[in-house]
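Local shape tokens

___
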Amino acid sequence: MDISGLPGFYAIAAADPGRVAVIDVDGAAVGYGDLLARVNQVSHGLRARGLNTGDVVAGILRNGADPLVMLMATGQIGLYYVPVNWHLTEPEVDYILRDCEAKVVVREAADVAALAEGQPSGDPEERTSGAVMWYTSGTTGFPKGVQRPLAGAEPEAVVPLYTWFLGEVCDLRPGAGVHLVTSPMYHSSPCAHSQFALHLGHTVVIAPRFEPEPILALVDRYEVTNAMMVPTMFHRMLQLPEDVRQKYDLSSLAQVVHTAAACPVAVKQGIMDWWGPVLYEYYGSTESTIAFFVKPRDWLARPGTVGRPAPTFEAKVLDETGAELPPGEPGMIYVKSAINTFEYRKDPAKTAASMLGEWYAPGDIGYLDEDGFLFLCDRRTDLIVSGGVNIYPAEIEAAILEHPAVADVAVIGVPDEEWGHSVVALVQPSGPVTAEAILGHLGARLARFKQPKVIEFRETLPRTPTGKLSRGKVREDYLAGR
């Protein structure tokens, strides 16, 4: 059935109930009609518990169909839905639940079933769009909810704007696509992409976790057309033996979207050499959403860029005094958009501190080229100043990762009486390697002042479930060990 003119999941499910909506982690298929019936039952169940427009529901759920049910159920009755990382400790979870003032918390499939039990499967009355409220990672202080105003209109009036935006950025269109979920669905990008895959009428195939070869097998088995990944996944896939790579047909892939962390040029080029020009990248944050994007052929023409401003966005780069910098000069990145507004829940001071008038700073240092393409240098908080010179850890990490015996690496700055800070590299090897071999590898790739003064080896390095390196944790552990 042609669903290209239908405005999102609810309309698609009503018109084409037999369409496959979800392939769950156990391989079970769920149709759009059955998924909508469950969504409607949960919507009625939440209303029956007294929840009204603007109230909050929290979900502490592992990957599966249930997070999608909660997204779509809250999304049609004007509620905020807060996905919570189930890896967090109990005190960390309790803080988020208190801060968001969740009136209902679902922790497992049985809780979702209890909401649906005995409820009608027809549409709820007075349907109005809800919103997802993600909590920031809390690298400085406690995490805060990023809250956007509710639209005050039914979902069918709101969804087309967002599906248009995603089409412009990622070339994703309504139709017979298959989306693969590779990351925890409590994170903003995996959550948003799985939700909008349903709004596009795609089938959502859900992996329980990321493992390189099983992910390739899912792509082959279900003829996956699009997925969202992060750079560390690419690095791990490139380490697969050639005979394993050749076992799987990946020709169905048309769009693999990546975000969350800087992708080393060699890693991205390696994946495109293998999969073809299918990597779409965007840069932003939970607060700014998708602020910059780059399609495969533009990236191949400008390796390393994260693209130009996304539709409705403007960007500028400022120095420490607030003066705008010319092309090629690194500084703090600021963005603004007429359709993207947010506030930190119950924290107007933090909201104000993150803004410069209408402009928001994601916290990264970068520069624009003459054509307006953005190149990132690093996080402001990770910048190393050694001997008065700015050094960007991400650049050093990218160079070290090109060594075939390196599985992962974290580069940090540590206090140095003479230089202010010195560069330290903590390396997770994938095979036999020495510090001397790594320095020899870097000789032709990095200027001497950027090369690590110290290289130490670690069995593992802390990363978030979406692949972001926890440099703060690395630095804290290293300094404690000294």
